[in-house]
Each structure stands twice: as C-alpha cells, then as structure tokens.
Amino acid sequence: MPDPDDATCCQTLPLTTVQQLRMLLHHRANCVGNDALFVTEALLPATRISRQQTSEAFSLLISPRFSALLTSRPLDFQAVTGAEAAGEAVPICGVALSFEAGAIAAFLQNLISQVPAHSTLVETLTAFLPILQPNDPQAQSDFTLQLVQLLAQQASPILPSNSAVRHRAATLEQKVVERTQDLQSAMLAAETASRAKGEFIGAMSHELRTPLTAIIGMSSTLLRWSFGDLNERQRGFIQTIYNSGQHLLGLINDILDLSQLESGSTVLKLSAFSLTLLAQQTLTTMQAMAGQSHVTLELDAGVAPGRDRFIADPYRLQQILLNLLSNAIKFTPEGGHVILRIFADEGSAIFQIKDTGIGIPEEKRSLLFQKFQQLDTSYQRVYQGTGLGLALTKHLVELHGGRITVDSTVDVGTVVMVQLPHRSEARVGFRQQTQRRILLVKNREESANLLCDILTAAGYQLVWLVEGSTAVGQIEMIQPDAVIVDMEDPGSHGYPLIQQLRQNPMTRSLKVLAVVSPSSGDSLTRSLEAGADDCLMCPIQPSEVLPKVMQLISQNESLHGSEASGSEASGSEASEPVPEGLA
User: Fold this and answer.
1) Where are the domains of the chain?
2) 3-state secondary structure 63-88
3) Spans of the chain, pLDDT less than 70
C-alpha cells in the first residue's frame, strides 16, 4: 500500500475525522448500490498484507461515476486539544486521499497480487478494474462539498497544536472552493464538448449516409436486376458490398442514437399499440438471420386481449427487441433455440428473451452494458460486433422508466428480461390530444392530399394508406383514433374493410368515417349498414371535415372513459399470472 507521505494529497487529521471520512465513503458506496465496490483493510483478515493489519488502514471506493482511495497511518505524536488541563489528547493520523484513476488502479492491482489467487475476492476486485475512469465532474464536486463540511466541523480543535497543521487548515477551505470552481468550469467545458461532439456526429452521419445510400441501393439493384449474366463470384462480390454497406449503416445509426441518448436530446414518441403484433413483426424481421444461423426462433405471447394495448414508443421498443434477439441469435450455436416471451400485468409489460447459447461468465457481466465492450477480446474474435447494441438497449429501457436484468449460465444459455411500466391514457392524454392519429384509406391522390392538408394543419397526425386490402393489419398495429375510408374507390375496398374492422375484437370499437358519393344512390345507407359511424359527402367540403372528425373522436373519448371507470370499479378481479421470477 502506498505511504501517505508519498501521496499527492496528504493531510494530518484527528483519528475521529478519519473515521468520519471513511464513513462518508461507505455511505456513498451504499447510495450507488451493486455498481460500486467498497473495500477496507477489515475485509482482508486472511491475506498476507501484514502492514495493513497492524498499522495502516485504507478505504477503497470504485464506481462508474466516482472513485476514491483513502489511506491513513497513526503518527508518533498526539495533538493536545483545548481541554489540555483535563489531560485529554486527540490521536493524529497521516492521511492521503486520491481521486486519480491511475493511482487507484495501481493500488488495486497491488492489492490483488497480495490476495490468495483462488479467493473469490480476487474475481470481485478484478471485475472492477475496467470500470476505473476519471471521476464525473458533478460527482466530484458533490463529494468535495461534503468533504469541506466535514473538515470545517472537525479541523478547529487541533489548530493550536501545530503551526503547519494550522496553516493547512486555514487555507484548505479556500483551496476546496477554488477546486470546486475548477470542477464546475471543467463540467461546463465538458458539456460544451459534448454538444460539439453531438453536432459533429450528426453532421458526419449525414455525410456518411449519403454515399452509403448509393452503395446499398446500387448494389441491391445489381443483385435483383443485373444487366447481363453475373457469375457466382461476381454476385458474391456484389453481395459483400451490399452486406458491408448495411453493416456500416447500422453502426452509424447506433452511434448517432447513443450520442443523442447520452446528451439527453432523445424524446420518446409515445403511442398506443398492440404488444402481440409488435412482437410478431419483430420476429418476422429476425427470421432471416435465425435461418442463416440455423437457430429456431419462437414466440410465446401470453398477453390477454384486454391487456394487449400498451403505451410506449413502438419504434424504440422494437429496437430494444431487435438488439436483444440479434444478440441471442449471434451467440447461439447451430441447432439452438431462441424464445421471445411476452407477459403483461396491471403495472407493466415484461419481455423475456431466452436462448440456449454459450452463456456469459459471471466475472464479465459487469461489462455487458458498457459501450464499446466485447466479452470476446481476443485478436481472432469469433463473434463480430462493436459493443454498442446492449449499451444502447439499456439506455432505451431506462428512458422508458424500465429495467433490464440478465441471468446466464455458461454453456447452458442466457435469459434477458426487460420490464417496462404501463402508462395510463391519462398520463399521456395531453400529448394524445395534440397529436391524434387519423388513418386515411384512399387511392385518389387529389382528394387524399386535400384531407391530409386539412387534418395536418389542425394538428392531427395522418397516416395515408393507398391499398385497402392489407389495411387491417396496419390498423391493428397503429391503433388510430379514427379511420377515414373512401367507399367509392375500388382500391380502398371500403365495404369489406369496414366489415373486417367490425368483426375484429381489436378494432371493433374504432370510429370510422366513410367518404361517399351522393350520385351512388344507396351508398350512404350501405356504408352505415356496413358499420361506418358517419359519412362525408363528395366533393369534400373543407368546412365539414373537422367537425365530423372531432365529433367521432369525442365519442371515442367518452367510450374509453366509461370503460376505464368500469375497470377501476372491478379492480379486484384476478390479474394475469406472471411466471415465477418475473414478478
């Protein structure tokens, strides 16, 4: 252990102050939780560190945002207090306090070398070596202020005893204030640099995406519609160009997303959607990758129809699931299985990704969600990747207010669980009122543009579908507040579309506005009989569009309000069972 006299920051303090300083570090470790390591000489009774057991003491705190090393040694003299006449004395210690990551790492490595090799403590200490980094300026500033308060309370009794100690105590507070100001300036500079980094990444991503779009688009065109015959080798070259372009585009997107998340500029676009349909679409996207790896991909959706409607950012949630599924497939050998399970209770939705892959050693789990970290660090890595996917996933889960946990056994498999809290309609009601979603099924561009302009100008979010035969699946996924269907347009398939919506339990209560022509005679009656809630006559009069849409949405709000009241009144009903370990 380094001597206090050799340390950069060395003070002479009463033993009681040293003990309180050790307690301050211990309290900070408790606040951090499982992400922190706190070690003292008291935890090493079985080691060969004889000096630490007899004369020296230390407190070591390591966490992602703040690390510190406190060492102390009793001195050969005692400082007499103001109660000298009573014969009372205060033991004095030489104290060294270091925040420098390199010095702490050297101390930790020296500590590891003196602990028995097969001790579990060695694994614990080694796992925290990669975490060491310069302290976060805000965390350093907070600790410094606490340190000032502690020393201000305890320093005065020893001032008369020693001129050097008196001088240091007199100037310590000023030095701490200056250091705090330096840290605040450093924090401001770091924030400025972070903004500059975000702007740089945004600009570079745009500049890189432009040529990548050409590379991916042209190589894809050559693969599908090549002019002339391509031999297998030529086709392989083009396929490599296409795959490499897609890989690089995904990397650029991940870097940009992670940069935006870290800077706090990412905003969730909350909306209601179907959990089951989102999971089905995600699995469909991953089937090709699973097929190439000869891995079986399965879905176990245990969500009751009454709890299938969920409020979150569907794009970001799908991004979370895609990252976790691709990771599970990548680390699962041929013939293995990957299962996506979904559960929902009154308070949350739970996504469980289980694989029969290689597993994760316990000593490497602390690196799992750190950016640019790979568990396979050999020069000839078997598994490709940048180490961004899981770091991005953890940020997105926490942005939703959720949590992610990992349970893994080497050579058996891994289970990753994501739990997202349920948001009630009332909590996101303001945003939904300002961005109501309307889905338009219409093939005629001129009148469709007119409706788009009117509704968009009024603050509605409009989704325009040209083909009505495949609209039911899109409507189930998007869960709009109302649907406008052109009954006279052959491509819209108006009548069968409304009938399918009314027969589907997920869309049965959806409000439908039919666009009909008065020249068609019974089109108004047929539309209402098919299940339309109201009709809009052609040619479309702009003054009639908004009143009808607003009336339908207000009816929809009243319906959901009565359903919510009913569900609250019957809140004692049994909730959907959640598998053991997921509650």
Assistant:
1) 4-161, 271-421, 429-569
2) CCCCCEEEEEEEEEEEEECCCHHHCC
3) 1-10, 44-55, 76-90, 153-170, 194-195, 197-199, 201-206, 209, 225-228, 258-266, 370-387, 424-435, 457, 490-492, 519-521, 556-583
Do 440 and 451 meet the contact criterion of CB atoms below 8 Å apart?
Answer: yes
**Within a 10 A sphere around the Cβ of 120, how many other Cβ atoms?**
9
Mind listing the pLDDT tens digit for each residue in 218-267? Answer: 787 777 766 667 788 888 888 888 888 877 777 777 777 766 666 665 67
Q: What are phi and psi of 568, to 5 degrees?
A: -65, -40
Class of 429-569 in CATH: alpha beta
List, for residues 564-576, the tens digit of each pLDDT value.
Answer: 444 444 333 333 3
The secondary element (H helix, E strand) that includes residue 440 is strand 437-441
Under CATH, which number does the domain 271-421 receive?
Answer: 3.30.565.10
DSSP 333: -
Closest CA to 330 of 294, 361, 277, 278: 294
**Residue carrying structure tokens 């070398």:** 113
> Helix (H, G, I), strand (E, B), or coil: what is residue 398?
helix
Question: How many other CB atoms are there within 10 angstroms of residue 191's CB atom?
Answer: 12
CA-based Rg of the chain, rounded to a whole angstrom?
A: 32
H or E stretch including 549? Answer: helix 542-569
Picking from 15, 105, 115, 121, the residue whose alpha carbon sits closest to that of residue 60 is 105
Q: Which of 481, 474, 485, 483 is nearest to 443 (CA)?
A: 485
Q: Give the pTM.
A: 0.42
The kind and range of the H/E element at 278 are helix 275-292
Dist CA 434 CA 430 (whole Å): 6
CA dist 393 and 318 (Å) reads: 10
Tell me, yes or no, if the two domains 271-421 and 429-569 fold the same way. no
3-class secondary structure per residue, 492-522 = HCHHHHHHHHHHCCCCCCCEEEEEECHHHCC
Distance (Å, whole) CA 362 – CA 124: 10
The number of CA neighbours under 13 Å toward the Cβ of 103 is 21
List the one residue out of 546, 439, 528 whose CA is nearest residue 487: 528
